[in-house]
Design a protein that fits this description.
Length: 87
Amino acid sequence: MKRLKEYLLGFLLLLANIIFAQTTPQQMVSSMGRGINMGNVLSAPVEGNWASAFTESYFEDVAKAGFKIVRIPIYFFGDRTLGNTSI
């Protein structure tokens, strides 16, 4: 009887692992499709310092070019650089 309980517990753990398994990074990347990285535009101390400021038309152009995924890195926690970063 003890052996049966051990097998049943092992089976349930295996089943739970299969059901609740997370997506691997490789699976997620392959399902994302074509993407673009917006770079550090919104990470600059002042928007527009490191590249042109974003406008709605920029995102429309990105969509027209066929990009489905947009990575927008943003830094919310104060100054990251010292000195003058303007061009």
